[in-house]
Each structure stands twice: as C-alpha cells, then as structure tokens.
Amino acid sequence: MNPLLGVIFHGIGGAAAGTFYLPLKGVKRWSWESAWLVAGVFSWIVAPWCFALYLNPRLTEALAEAPGGAILLTLLFGALWGVGGLTFGLSMRYLGLSLGYAVTLGFCAAFGTLIPPLFKGELPMLWSSRGGWIVLFGVAICLAGIAMCGRAGIIRDRQQGGALPAEFNLIRGLWVAMFSGIMSSCMAFAFQSGKPIMDQATQSGTPEVFANTAVLVVTLLGGFITNAVWCLILNYRNGSFGDYVNRREERAPLARNYALSMLAGTTWYLQFFFYSMGTTLMGPFDFSSWTLHMAFIILCGNFWGLTLGEWRGTSGQARLWLAGGVATLLISVALVGWGNALGT
C-alpha cells in the first residue's frame, strides 16, 4: 500500500480521461456514432486484452477459475456503467453543457465513492477513525470544487453569448443527471465485485498492482455491449454504416479516421489502466479512488479548456470561480490522499 503513488497513478489516469477526446476532433466526415464505435473497439476490447495478456500470460486460465458469480456481477456493472455514459449526454440536453457536466459528475463522484462502502458495511470504520473522517471531508470538498467549476462554466457560457438549451428543464435534467451519475458510478461497483477476479489473477502470477487489468477485461466488455448496441442503432437510423468503408457521398480520409479513433480509444483505456493500478495502493479506504478520478478528470478538462482558448474573453468573475474550483479540487485530492495514508 502506497497512497502517494496511488494518487499519482490516479492523476495520470485522470489526465488520460481528460485528453482522449482530442484525437476525435480530427475525425472528418464521419458520424459521431461511427467514430465512437471504432474508438470503443480499441478502448473496450483490444487495449484491455492486449495489456492484460502482456501483464498476465495466464489470463484466460485466471478468468476460467474465477467465481462465475463475480464474473457475471462485474459484467453487469460494466454494462450499467455504459448506460450511465449514454445518458450523460441526455443530461446536457436538459441542463446545458456546464451545469449538466458539473451536476452529473457531482452525483457520479458522490455515489461512486460512498455507496460501495455502504454496501460492504464499512461506514462504521469511517466514522470511527481519523483517516476516515479526513477522507469523507475530502469527498465533500471535491463536490464543492465540482460545483464551483460548474458555476464558472455557466458564467462563461452567458458571457460568450451562450443560451439555455431549447429543451431546458431543471427538474427533469436533475433526475436524468442523478440517474446518469448512479449508473456511471457502477464502474466503482465493478471493481468491488471483481475482487475475486483480481485475487485469481494474482494467484496466477500477476503482480498485485496490475491484477485489476483482469477485472477491466470483464467490466469493459459489459460497457462495450451497451455502447455498441446504441451506436449500431444510430448507424441504422442515420444511414451511417457507409462510414466504415467510405460509401458516403463525401469521402472521408479513411486511414486517418481509423488511426485517430484508435488513438482516442487507447488513450481512453489508459484512464482505467492507471485507475486500476492506483486503487490497489490506496489501502483500506480504496473506495476514495473514485473521488480522485473525478477530481483529476475535471482538472485536466479545465486545463485543456484554457489551453484551447475556451475561456478567452471571459470576465475576471468567471476565471475567479474557475481558479477557486481548481484550488478546491487540489485541496480535496490532498485530503483524500492524507486520509488514506493515515488509514494505511
């Protein structure tokens, strides 16, 4: 157990999550669902198997010997996590980009961090230890930081002439955001359910820090099923099956699009590769890994927003809220890491 190294790994994973979409911006004349599905093949199937087989040549043996119930639960939570990702966009439809992003990630961070220890009966351990109180305080600070970043985004949108979405509905949007947050947090449940798979991988010779790569193979298969079905439905509705073989009126740079989608998908996978490594090092309060993951995603996303000029021309008020939110998230990361160190 090494919480400091675990925080570093979560930082790298958050940076990958906040960066993966940049290559997809270079995909030309493809529908969104086509690029997303090609990227998903690499992020949910190819990369997980390649990394896991490299780190554990006896992976198939470990999966075959793992309890069937653990395999099914991990697969199920992976599929539910995929539903959360799909409904994430629906929350933007009703709340707008900035408010929807902040509210959904806030719910996701809260549910994904606190519900797993609640189900496992570990909350009394939190209330009775100094490290547990510090971790819980860090989670609360993280939620405050997410809210501040969301406030900054709302002010920016108003100052840049952004308007509320045509279908803006606060009540419906909050319900959808809560549902999306709960479903998205199922990734944390998948790691909890997959501990027997992790143990089996360790027994088959995988170093413990890499053992969760076996869990990711099962979890992301569930996510792939959910997302692939939806993308294929959109391909059918939009008549975009021709994207994959250039049978559309406007011919796309096929090799470039596949390469960029492959890069995006592999980068996306790296977020959970490093997340899976970090969570093995966090000690008895490893459920706090989800809070760290959310915090680093938002930090990296705002970094790219500033770098790409998304905040150009905004007032000092918006930048002050953003700076306050970023500082608050950094404080939350330090508190969660400190609490885990005390627990260890």
Q: How would you explain this protein's 3D organization?
A:
α3 (59-65) crosses α10 (195-203), α4 runs antiparallel to α8 (170-184) and α10 packs across α11. The protein has helices at residues 3-19, 32-55, 59-65, 68-95, 97-119, 123-127, 130-159, 170-184, 186-193, 195-203, 212-238, 254-279, 289-307, 316-343. The chain has one domain (3-343). The model has no long low-confidence stretch (mean pLDDT 84). With 344 residues, the chain is mostly helical.
Helix-strand string: HHHHHHHHHHHHHH
Mean pLDDT over the full residue set: 84
- Rg over C-alpha atoms, rounded to the nearest angstrom: 20 Å
Output the structural class. mainly alpha
Q: Main β-sheet, in a few words? A: none
Number of strands: 0
Topology:
Layout: H1 3-19, H2 32-55, H3 59-65, H4 68-95, H5 97-119, H6 123-127, H7 130-159, H8 170-184, H9 186-193, H10 195-203, H11 212-238, H12 254-279, H13 289-307, H14 316-343
Helix pairs in contact: 1-12, 1-13, 1-14, 2-11, 2-12, 3-10, 4-5, 4-8, 4-9, 4-11, 5-7, 5-8, 5-13, 7-13, 7-14, 10-11, 13-14
Produce a short descriptive summary.
The protein is mainly α and 344 residues long. Helices cover 77% and strands 0% of the residues.
Structural key phrases:
344 residues; mainly alpha; 14 helices; 77% helix; globular
